[in-house]
Structures are given as C-alpha cells and as structure tokens.
# Entry
Amino acid sequence: MAAFSLNSLPVPPSKHQKAAECSHVDGGLKPIVVTGNPPTFVSAPGRRIVAVGDLHGDLAQTRCALELAGVLSSDGQDLWIGGETILVQLGDILDRGEDEIAILSLLRSLNIQAKSDGGAVFQVNGNHETMNVEGDFRFVDPRAFDECIDFLEYLNEHEGNWKDAFVGWINVCERWKENRRMSQNYWNRWNLMKRQKGIIARSTLLRPGGPLACELAHHAVVLKVDDWIFCHGGLLPHHVVYGIERMNKEVSHWMQGFSEDDNYSLEIPFIATRGYDSVVWNRLYSRDCVDRKYQSWQISSIVEETLQAIGAKGMVVGHTPQYNGVNCRYNQRIWCIDIGMSSGVLNSRPEICVLFIFGIMYGKTWA
# Structure
C-alpha cells in the first residue's frame, strides 16, 4: 500500500478506481466488514482510504479538506461524492473553534450517504473529546458554548429525537448562528448568566451518558483498516498487549455512563485517555527531533514492535501540529497528519493523507 499527501486541488475519484479493479466481485468491490463495537477492525479491500487530521471546530476548513479529499461536493449541498472511498477522521473535532457539533453532524450525514454508495466514514476520538467528557472545558471557544445552547433548543424542537436533530444540524446551524448574532444580548460577552447557561448546556450534552457523549461513544480510539492503524496520539506495544478492542469498549462504556450496576465501571480508562503515553496523548511519533528523549533508532524499534504485534504495515496519527505539513517518518511506517488547519490553531492550508492498496499511486501532490 502506498501513501501520499495532498494540499491543494481535489483528486477526481475516477483516478482511484483503477487501483481497486482486482478486488471487484461481480462488478463491484467486496463489501466492507466491520468488527467490534465501537468499530475496531475494518476490512475494506480495494478501496481508496483518505485520512483527515485534527479539525478543532473549524467548519469552513473541514469542508475544504473534505472537498480536497474528493468526498464532499463543492456546491454547498454537503453531498457525499466519494463513492466507495473510506474516510477516516483522526479526532480533536472539539475545542478551539465554534462549529464542533456542526462538524460532527456533517460527518454523520456523510457516513449515512457513503454507506449507500459502498463507502464509509469512520472517526476516532482524540484527547479533546475525552477531556470534554471529563468536564474539562479549558480549551472551549466561547462561541462553542453558544452552539451548545442553540443545539439543545433545536433538539427540544425535535422533541428529543436525537438522530433527526443531530443529522439535520448541519443544514440549519448557520441560520441559528446568524439569529444568535442578531440578538441584542449576543454582544454582551460578560453576561455571566449566558456563560453559565453555556456551561450547563455543554455539560448536559457531554457528561458521561449525555447525548453527545453517547454519540462520541460510537467511535473508537484505535481503528485498524486493512493494514493501517489510525489513532489520535499513537499506539504503543503495551497498548496492543492490553488489547485495542478492550480499550475501545472501555472508553465507549465510560462515555455512555455505564455504572457498576451495568457490570461496567465509570472510572476513566487510564491507558487510553490519561497520561503522556496513553493512546490519545502520546506524542512519541509526532514530536520534532529536538523534543524527543529517545533516539530515532529507538523509536523505529518501538514502531516496528507495535506494528508487528498488531499485524499492521503503518500507522496514521494526529495530535501534534506539523509545521511543514503532512509527513512520514520511521521508514514510512508513521504518517503525521495534524497540520493545525483550524483557525483556532495554525490556520494552515488543509491537507489530507491518501492511502492506496497494491502499492499503486495515482494523482499528484500539489504545492
């Protein structure tokens, strides 16, 4: 399997269909097979796989990245045009931007559309998702609290019908935002009652067992698609020994608020979500050389041990902004794809990572 990055013009989907021809069965690709709840192992033979890094609440940049990936229409209709493509988003949709729920809604809508075309959209949770479920709101954009208030009101209008409200939010969020901005009270940033209302709304949505936390619980912290591992921070050998399906289940159960009465513990899953070497916080593979306490050969050895243990050829990670854009390291085993595209981070030009089966590469890298 080959990989490369794009950072400008979208690639026409037709260029990628050639790579999958030998995986066609009776005129179509073999079906996608997903194992685990949340999804942990995905078999998607012959498909183009596109990975997108941290989005941090920037809807405009998200749309640019998805259009660049060739999976989102550019006519403003938010239509899936990726056919049988697999899209993987690497977490950190929350914090630092104002359109978090809108982005989550867009990805859910695209997944519904993709499935009807033989494709799929997968997400993995990052450290900012787990922080918010913990109630850590330090990095929340003030306007994101406003979105939480608006969305709860919109949900009430739907009489609590979560799926309709959540999937439909992407279609109405701009109107709600504009109505809010037209309000007399919107410009009073020091309105303490409004601030408190925003915190309550966010807590209602994201506390363990809250509706948005339960939505996030549908997503893994580690995902294996064919021969590739996708995770926010980085997978280490002791994570594999612990079991990636076990970690995914524990994080999902915690987000859903399962109690000991449900035969699960509400304790935060430490190995996946806490500590410098947890799956969502690990920066071993993505830090610059000057920040590392290990030599490159030592990290390469850890990478090889991890991939061999999980039966993978490579790993795609986000979490740490790459000032020089998407890049690969350690004998092309690690791809670092967080380029800080959100206006709340570096406001970098969107880039994506495209993976192909059979070692065949179609397309170009545009400057």
The first helix runs from residue 59 to 68. The two ends are 23 Å apart (CA to CA). The CA atoms of residues 178 and 338 lie 30 Å apart. The longest strand covers residues 2-6.
